[in-house]
Write a structure and sequence with these properties.
It contains 13 helices and 14 strands. By secondary structure, the chain is of the alpha/beta class. It is globular, with a radius of gyration of 24 Å.
Amino acid sequence: MHDPEHGAAALRAQTPLGLRYHYLSGGANTGLGWQTFAGGNGAFVGEYVADAQAQGFLSAFSYYMLLQSAPGNAQRDERLQTTVNLGSRPTMTAYFQDLRTFFVRAAATGVDPIVLHVEPDAWGYAQRSAPGDDARLVPAHVAATGLPELAGLPDDVAGFAQAVVRLRDRYAPNVRLGYHVSVWGTGVDISHSDPPDEEVDALAARSVAFYRSLRASFDLLFFEFADRDAGYREHVDGEGRLGWWDADDFLRNVRYVGRITSALARPGVMWQIPLGNTRMRAMNNTYGHYQDNRVETLLDPSRAVMTRYRDAGIVAFLFGNAVAGTTCACDAVGDGITNPAPVNGNVGLSLSADDDGGLFKALVAQYAARPGLRATSAANAAPPSTWARFMVRATTTRRGRVVRVRARVTSTTAATATVVVEVRRPGAKVRRAARKQWSSRQFKRRAARPFTLDWRPPAGTRAGRYGVVVRVIERRGRATRLTARRATSIVLPR
């Protein structure tokens, strides 16, 4: 569920939900970006993750920085906001530096996993700008930024995606990357046009083709519902019943989602689900109390629709809006318990002061009281039981001015993995003192492999206890997972 900073304890006291998410937004070069949140300097990420972890929640962040960066943010059309910024070398330099900061901050938490939902909307606008759904035909400054980590990558949207993955691999293998599949990226929104099944399948194939043209491996696929309640779209945006979903809309959406998760062998997440309902009297289509039917449809006790999504490869549902004045499962309006006159047959009395009348939390509690649905679709990426297990031993010695780190890595099964050994400075902003990586090493069952890093501290290196970390990142096809981590230390004398 979308949840504010320092909100984990209150949310845990009221619901058995498993994940909290928050936007990272504001633009990379505007002085208003996420690095200014909380105490500044990017501290927000660590604080949010720590708050979530203390209450047993996983953390996810929706990284929404590209559209809001300058100079593209001066455009009225969001597609132009995207393409203008992709074509600006200074903007993309600032963007990748900002993204690198996120990964460094996420890695410093030591929490695994953290989910980064990368640029909702931007991929859709890029696809709409791509001839033949080919991301390589949309220009973007990547290697041209001059950042050393991005050397050799193509200067197009495919290179943009590859840069995201490369930065994650280098700085934060504990982060799982979510690619956003925009249903309207093809130029057709199936919830509006109500196409037949064969057209839904063709549109899904185009979405798959665009993702494959990126030549980058993300871990999860994010799919959207809407950024606002259907009642908001009807009464504020003046769109009539366009935003309302009927049974056929859900079926078409499930079909589209299932075709993509199956083709790409990636698990899916349904994101940004509006929190309005049509049952409670609090929902009278006024500010903060707009109606919608997706909560009650997904969390219906029959679980009929939820099961279809499960079988289509969906492993998580994230509820929340992105527009001020839409419905919250909290008392965002500050008007307490309300029971105005019914509209459209919504006769339920409020269960709490929450702006939705308390229905969302009541349905979540009801859902959790029964055995949960298990993700059984073959479209899901390799579940934990199919990943290898690694045993890591690490020792450190010092001979004169040379520090030697010896790691021995053993796999329970035949596997391919990357091994990373790092020495980390104590209490420094730039903590990495030394690093060595062995990519795509083959492991035989129960056969140990040695890995050695020799570090000669340069003159002036200060005394103290230096951390030593060994990580093993397994690869299965296009999927990756941090499967083992061992930490130790060594003391440098004065």
